[in-house]
Write a structure and sequence with these properties.
- The protein is mostly helical.
- The protein contains four helices and no strands.
- The protein has helices spanning about 20-60, 70-120, 125-150, 155-195.
- The longest helix has about 50 residues, at about 70-120.
- It is elongated.
- The two termini are about 40 Å apart.
Length: about 200
């Protein structure tokens, strides 16, 4: 039997899947997708709570992870405003960001998008969420490093790379969500028309 990638564990079989693979995928799909969804919901809840605590306790506004594009001066001003306690709280938030938040959104939304792509017989777009996660790792790792090194400044080249990763993250995630919603509507309308015949 051929090997399956991570997203295929959540997806519906196509006409090219053999019988054993199809049965295995149908058995695993509900439980794995539910588990991924619950983990994502828990992760989002924790991230919102930690971000809210960081802002209400130490000020500074939204953490850099929620910005679109990063400027050196703005980043260091944020790290200065939140102080030692805020930087420690920010590093703790980043630990949860790395795991389980990043893998959970990549698996959950990627799997949902793959299901919709296969249903529409469209090209696989689930890689958009993988790209978003990889850029998220670069971005968050850089911010964590900057927080650890503060008040010393890290290389402006590293900050610029993190800024590019940050922008790619949001663009990839945004296009992924648009694709997910668009394909869901398309597939729902197609199924409705087929049912009416």
């Amino acid at each position: 039997m051929r090997s399956l990638n991570l997203f295929q564990l959540f997806s519906f079989p196509t006409q090219h899947d053999d019988v054993n693979t199809a049965c295995s995928m149908h058995t695993q799909t509900p439980s794995l997708l539910i588990a991924a969804g619950l983990t994502e919901a828990l992760s989002v809840g924790v991230m919102i709570r930690r971000s809210g605590y960081l802002q209400s306790t130490f000020g500074g506004g939204n953490p850099p992870d929620l910005w679109f594009g990063i400027q050196d001066e703005k980043l260091y001003n944020y790290l200065d405003v939140i102080g030692d306690g805020g930087r420690e709280a920010y590093r703790k938030m980043n630990s949860w960001d790395f795991f389980p938040y990043m893998p959970s959104y990549m698996i959950f939304y990627g799997a949902l998008l793959l299901i919709q792509c296969r249903s529409a017989q469209a090209s696989d777009l689930s890689w958009l969420f993988f790209i978003a996660m990889m850029c998220d790792i670069i971005e968050t790792g850089t911010f964590n490093y900057a927080a650890n090194q503060f008040p010393e400044h890290i290389s402006s080249t590293i900050v610029r790379a993190a800024s590019i990763a940050n922008e790619i993250k949001w663009v990839s995630f945004g296009f992924g969500l648009i694709g997910l919603v668009g394909l869901f509507v398309h597939n729902s309308l197609k199924a409705k028309k087929a049912h009416q015949r």
